[in-house]
Write a structure and sequence with these properties.
It is globular, with a radius of gyration of 20 Å. The strands form four sheets. The protein has a five-stranded parallel beta sheet, covered by helices on one side. It has a two-stranded antiparallel sheet with strand order 4-7. Helix 9 crosses helix 10. A hairpin with a 2-residue loop joins strand 9 and strand 10. Helices cover 45% and strands 13% of the residues. It has 279 residues and is an alpha/beta fold. The chain folds into two domains: 216 residues, no CATH class; 58 residues, no CATH class.
Length: 279
C-alpha cells in the first residue's frame, strides 16, 4: 500500500499561520495544477514510489491519496498502468538495473488499483472561461487530457469526495475531471442538513468578476505571474467595493457565507463513517 498525503495544515505546531506552507504547499502547487496540470511535488512522488517497488518488487501495489496527494496518486496510477515509471525515474545510464526491476514488476501485473479522497482534479484547457478570465489552463498536463476525460481508467482509479469539499465544489463549477471514475459524493452533513456544491453562490462570483471587467477591462493572463497580479487587482477592487457599496457588500457576504464549511469538509476524517461503503 502506497499512501500519498495531502497538503500541510495552514497552522504550525504553535497554532500560528505557517506562511511558508501556505505559499509552497497550497498556493504554488494548486496554481501549478490549474495552470500546468502538473506540480513540483510529482518528481519526488515518482521517485518514492519507484523506491518502494524496488524494495518490494514481487508485491501487489495499491495506491491511496488525499487532496494534493490524491492528484499525485492519479498521476502515479497512470505511470504504473502504462509502465512508464521505470523509464521516467531511472532512465539515466547511472541507474543500473533499477529500471528493469521496476518495469518487470509492473509488467507482471502487480499494480492493482487506486483510491483517492477529495483529490484535486485536472482542469480543462479553458477552465477559467467559466468565471470570465481569459487564460489557458492545463497547458502541460502530467496525464494526457484525453485520457483523463476518457473512461480507460474507470476500473483502476476510484475517486471519492465529500459533497461540500472545497476541491469538489471548485471541480463542479469549473470544467474539470479526475482520472478514473468519480464515485458519487458522500453527504457532508452539518446539524442535520446535507451541504453540496450547489449551496455555493457561484453565480455571484461570476457577476462580481463581470462587474470588475466592465469597469477595469478584461482579465487576461498568459502565465501564473500575470494571473497572480490580476487576482491582486481584483481583490483590491472587491475590498474597495465592500467599503463603498452596501448592496455589493451584502452580496459578497452572502457568497462567502455560502462557502462556510468547504474547508472543514476537505478533511480526510470525514470519510471515516463511510468506511464500510468504501471498502
Amino acid at each position: 500500500m502506497i499512501a500519498l498525503r495531502g497538503s500541510d495544515e495552514f497552522e504550525n505546531e504553535d497554532g500560528d499561520l505557517d506562511v511558508g506552507n501556505i505559499f509552497t504547499d497550497w498556493l504554488m502547487t494548486n496554481v501549478d495544477i490549474l495552470v500546468d496540470g502538473d506540480n513540483t511535488q510529482l518528481k519526488k512522488a515518482k521517485e518514492f514510489v519507484a523506491e518502494v517497488i524496488l524494495e518490494n518488487e514481487d508485491s501487489q501495489i495499491y495506491v491511496v491519496g488525499h487532496s494534493l496527494g490524491g492528484f499525485n496518486a492519479q498521476v502515479i496510477s497512470y505511470y504504473l498502468e502504462e509502465n512508464l515509471l521505470g523509464e521516467d525515474v531511472y532512465g539515466g545510464w547511472f541507474s543500473g538495473n533499477k529500471r528493469e526491476v521496476v518495469e518487470k514488476s509492473l509488467s507482471d501485473g502487480n499494480y492493482q488499483f487506486t483510491r483517492t479522497f477529495n483529490a484535486a482534479p485536472f482542469f480543462g484547457e479553458r477552465a477559467l472561461d467559466a468565471i470570465g478570465i481569459d487564460m489557458d489552463t492545463s497547458t502541460n498536463p502530467a496525464v494526457p487530457l484525453d485520457v483523463v476525460f476518457g473512461e480507460t481508467y474507470n476500473d483502476k482509479v476510484y475517486n471519492h469526495q465529500m459533497s461540500f469539499d472545497v476541491l469538489h465544489v471548485i471541480g463542479q463549477w469549473l470544467p474539470s475531471n479526475k482520472l478514473g471514475v468519480e464515485v458519487p459524493a458522500f453527504d457532508y452533513n452539518v446539524d442535520g442538513k446535507v451541504h453540496d456544491y450547489e449551496d455555493v453562490q457561484f453565480q455571484t462570483l461570476v457577476d462580481v468578476i463581470a462587474a470588475y471587467e466592465d469597469e477595469k477591462g478584461p482579465i487576461e493572463a498568459g502565465h501564473r505571474v500575470e494571473l497572480g497580479r490580476e487576482m491582486y487587482y481584483l481583490y483590491k477592487w472587491i475590498d474597495k467595493q465592500i467599503d463603498n457599496d452596501s448592496d455589493f457588500s451584502n452580496r459578497w457576504t452572502e457568497l462567502t457565507s455560502s462557502m462556510d464549511g468547504v474547508v472543514p469538509a476537505h478533511g480526510l476524517r470525514n470519510f471515516y463513517k463511510y468506511y464500510n461503503e468504501i471498502k
